[in-house]
Amino acid sequence: MPVGEPLPPRLRRQLAGVKSLQGRGRFARLATGIVAIIAVGAVVSACGNSGLTLARQACTHVDRSITLLHQAQQQPTVYEGTRLEQQAYDALRAAMPIAAEAAYHDGQWQALMTSLSESDRVPEVTLVPSLQAECSMATNSIFDQAPPPSSIPAPSGT
What we know:
This protein is 72% helix and 0% strand. It is elongated. Helix 2 (50-73) packs antiparallel against helix 3, helix 2 (50-73) runs antiparallel to helix 5 and helix 4 (110-117) packs antiparallel against helix 5. The chain is mostly helical.
């Protein structure tokens, strides 16, 4: 059938529903495209500091581990000390995959990941100073600080 020529009445009745569904399909594709663009934008904007966020999550496990290790050293019984040391080790090992992902997103967290990966060969007591230093970088990140004062003078009120 040539374009622009009217359809016969019988064919028009049969295609009436198809024509309206075609319009809905276009709208659905348009709506899906808009939603997809918004979702991609949200994901991309969330990736900006995901390395820092993940490093902070890993450091919560590290801080818990260090606290448990200090508690283990102060226990009067060997059993309690050993139990707390094992919990400290488990908390440290729980931080490893999170730190690895942080290092994947942002290379500045490679040192944290490396220190954590040494926990199966080096006693945790030996790793504590480096872990504390690396985690202090995560908690005191430059992204949380106020911006430096501007050298541009304020506009005059005249």
